[in-house]
Amino acid sequence: MARKLSTLDPQRLDNQICFAVYSAAHAFNRVYKPLLDRLGLTYPQYLVMLVLWERDDVPLKDIGEKLFLDSGTLTPLLKRLEAAHLVKRTRSSEDERQVLIALTPQGHALKDKARSVPQSILAASDCSVPELVAMKDEIVALRDRLNAVIGE
Amino acid sequence: MARKLSTLDPQRLDNQICFAVYSAAHAFNRVYKPLLDRLGLTYPQYLVMLVLWERDDVPLKDIGEKLFLDSGTLTPLLKRLEAAHLVKRTRSSEDERQVLIALTPQGHALKDKARSVPQSILAASDCSVPELVAMKDEIVALRDRLNAVIGE
DNA sequence: TCACATTTAATTGTTCGCAATTGAATGTCG
DNA sequence: CGACATTCAATTGCGAACAATTAAATGTGA
User: Fold this and answer.
1) For chain C, which bases have at least one atom within 7 A of a protein Cβ?
2) Residue in A13, A27, A51 nearest the CB of B50
């Protein structure tokens, strides 16, 4: 009886999906760490590079919208990527407010070296691709509902 | 054809479950923010309080194991909770290496004020409880598989 | 055109999160 | 008992993450 109550108690840590998500994010980060160390990237830096590998010469703002990050996070991060010679930051000539982020040749080249990363993550997940895709879609849907509430 | 390839490309941002988890964690944090502000807590501080509301007078190490955090994160966090008069930190007399964390009366009292938080999160999730429980269990299982790889 | 609002990036300050190190307390084994 | 390893918390340094503010560029409407 006491057990049954505790498995329903919404104030219990283990009953909270947010803690599941929070702790899973950290677990992913720990798995990524050794893989990304070899590329000289942190996980958020890797996300920015993924965006740029899809489309180059992007305004900082667009990167922020894709990754749900603001300039307070991205400005120093991009300065570090620039210091590592992976990107170049230039003011747009049409709109001087915008900063355009472009890959350097080294930044482009890193895409190849990073090609094996998703494979390693998949292996660590120890889960079938269709299962992972289904989970991903559910989590994205949840995230989008949460973000919709924030805007309200 | 190009579209089909891109939806299978493992190096695409939108195909990565880790980014789904990462961005969902941030979305949760943004929903929690205004709720926890009223309690004077950050989200990680709230997690520590959840642990203590379940069992009081816990070694720092045990809190770390439950939350997957180390002393580098917890020591300053707990000092801030102590400065807010929510917990007390004392060295164990049996084992002087351990620091025991105990709730103050204010720390206990905060549990009641926090009772409505899970309800608000549930509403923001806009999802049935059984669905959320199923997702939570899947995510926890994934997290545990990832953590198992780290240990190896 | 000119006052005003909006957009955008940068900056500042606080809190996480973790790797690496330090130092003290405890355990272990010869 | 005594050398040695282990455990545990604290510390240091770095990189996010975000709120709040600042400043410059652009847009808008009288």
Assistant:
1) 7-13, 15-20, 23-27
2) A13
